[in-house]
Design a protein that fits this description.
- By secondary structure, the protein is an alpha/beta fold.
- The protein is built from 7 helices and 6 strands; from the N terminus they run βααβαβαβαββαα.
- A 6-stranded mixed sheet has the order 2-1-3-6-5-4, with helices on both faces.
- The longest helix has 12 residues.
- The two termini are about 25 Å apart.
- The relative contact order is 0.18.
Length: about 160
Amino acid sequence: MPVSPPRAKVLTVSDGVVAGTRDDRSGEALVARLLDAGYEVVERTVVGDGEEPVAEALRGLCAGFRGLVVTTGGTGFGPRDLTPEGTRAVLEREAPGLAEAARLVNPLGRLSRGIAGTTGTALVLNTPGSTKGAVECLEAVLDVLPHALALLAGEPTEH
């Protein structure tokens, strides 16, 4: 019986993309990288910056979903960069090792406030809004995500 590919969703957090004044390059790059890694990207959404818009979008994306939800944007020091706060409001358990690994790939990663964790059977990973930063942070943890998703889904694993 063929194994279905892992599923993923991408959430871009950007007032500029919502307003149509900025292209969603980081969201496009994450989708391309996930597809290249064998994921089935089943949804891509854009929401404005701010804690509540992010939390509301994540609640919808994670409800009944089994897979990976990657966010891009809103992890910096700007006044509306509240993706980690919106994410924290939705998470049941944090996974600090994933966020720490993502921060280590580039010196600018030290400026990212992104977090990671789980809610239900969804694993959420915050990445920066820059295209390069988003892809680098995802790549930093891609190797362990299949194991994490299997554990989250209650599947048997070797460890």
